[in-house]
Design a protein that fits this description.
The structure is a single chain. This protein has 132 residues and is mostly beta strands. It has one domain: Jelly Rolls. The chain is built from 1 helix and 9 strands. The protein is globular, with a radius of gyration of 15 Å. The model is unreliable at 1-12 and 120-132 (pLDDT under 50).
Length: 132
């Protein structure tokens, strides 16, 4: 098991999704991403054509929707699997920010997500920048 510290600052404007596995990290077939949703915001229906997605609630509550089929509430510790190519939505209907951890199988769209910064004092390939 690799100990990982996560930089929670946005890396590109207001981009709500940031990969937390920097280039050269121990992940080869999987990518990890932190998804942050401010209070009252969401992400429109989208799909990862080449990737399966495992979403885990970290903080707050996010509604994960399957257009036309309904939605589930994702709270801290709860998980939901989104099959490859299936449309899904994310919405934070609460008055507090919410955070999810997404683990995705690799694909072109996933590989294009912005990456978290490395902590220059960490052992190479083992840590990410610490939370300030």
């Amino acid at each position: 098991m690799f100990p990982i510290r996560i930089d929670t600052q946005y890396v590109r404007g207001d981009m709500p999704v940031t990969r937390i596995d920097p280039q050269g990290a121990p992940f080869t077939e999987l990518a990890a991403a932190r998804i942050q949703l401010l209070a009252g915001t969401g992400l429109e229906a989208h799909a990862y054509e080449e990737s399966e997605v495992l979403l885990t609630g970290v903080e707050g509550e996010v509604r994960v929707g399957d257009p036309g089929r309904g939605e589930v509430a994702l709270r801290p510790g709860a998980c939901v699997m989104v099959p490859r190519g299936e449309l899904f939505t994310l919405a934070n209907h609460t008055g507090r920010p919410a955070t999810l951890l997404a683990v995705l199988s690799r694909g072109d769209r996933v590989d294009g997500l912005p990456r978290s910064r490395r902590d220059p004092l960490s052992e190479p390939g083992r840590h990410l920048q610490a939370v300030a």
